[in-house]
Design brief:
- The protein is of the alpha/beta class.
- The protein folds into two domains: 123 residues, Response regulator (Rossmann fold, 3-Layer(aba) Sandwich), CATH 3.40.50.2300; 76 residues, Winged helix-like DNA-binding domain superfamily/Winged helix DNA-binding domain (Arc Repressor Mutant, subunit A, Orthogonal Bundle).
- Helix content is 58%, strand content 11%.
- The protein has nine helices and five strands, in the order E-H-E-H-E-H-E-H-E-H-H-H-H-H.
- It has a five-stranded parallel β-sheet, with helices on both faces.
- Helix 5 packs across helix 9, helix 6 crosses helix 8 and helix 7 packs across helix 8.
- The longest helix has 33 residues.
- It is elongated.
- The protein starts with 5 loop residues before the first strand and ends with a helix.
- The relative contact order is 0.11.
């Protein structure tokens, strides 16, 4: 594991934080600690693989409330921990996307494994975000006509159908299509379709997190 991975721990228990610090740093990750949700939220957001290990019951904002506050941080999976985890709280946490729910006292192997899984999820989310940003930049480079051609092509329209729909010649469609493929850096039609499918999936994920946050505004 790269040291460019950070594990945030939010728990008022000093002895627990010290124990987790040894485990986290021993696994090769960075560790950052906070006594409360408010203290954590005051820290800057990181553009690297990370996860949040949080106590369910915190002074001030609870762990569940903190989870709702960071739902937009898809690159930061949340792991809950508690001595007294009731079923409704556990269900609510998992429905909101919690990566794991650990019971105290924490087992070292179980904790490290949960963190490793969460960091792997974080790296995947960061890769997807980078791909999405690259796609959006390429999309912005298209002319209006090239974008119109792309929208029709990826929905299965043939060149002659695109030409008829846009009121241009089939030769002109081929020219726009060629430029569009180069700007989008698509090696094939299938590659172009995969790009648009990925974008749609990313948009749905953002909508899901926005809806979840709206259901529990804190």
């Amino acid at each position: 594991m790269s040291i460019e991975c950070t594990v945030f721990v939010v728990d008022p228990d000093t002895s627990l934080r010290e124990s987790l610090s040894r485990q986290i740093r021993g696994a090769g990750w960075q560790a950052r600690f906070a006594d409360s949700a408010q203290e954590f939220l005051a820290q800057p957001r990181l553009a690297q693989a990370c996860c949040l290990l949080v106590e369910l019951r915190l002074p001030g904002l609870s762990g569940l409330e903190l989870q709702q506050r960071v739902l937009d941080r898809v690159e930061m999976p949340v792991i809950f921990m508690s001595r007294e985890a009731d079923i409704p709280a556990t269900v609510r946490a998992m429905k909101a996307g919690a990566s794991e729910f650990l019971t105290k006292p924490l087992g070292a192997a179980e904790t490290v494994a949960a963190i490793a899984d969460a960091l792997q999820t974080s790296r995947s989310a960061l890769r997807q975000r980078a791909q999405q940003q690259a796609f959006e930049q390429r999309l912005q480079s298209l002319s209006l006509r090239e974008r119109e051609v792309m929208q029709l092509v990826v929905t299965g329209h043939l060149n002659k159908q695109v030409a008829a729909h846009l009121g241009i010649s089939e030769v002109t469609v081929k020219v726009h299509r060629g430029k569009m493929m180069r700007k989008m850096r698509a090696d094939s039609f299938a590659d172009l379709v995969n790009m648009t499918v990925f974008r749609t999936s990313a948009e749905r994920a953002r909508e899901y997190h926005a809806a979840a946050a709206a259901q529990h505004p804190y």
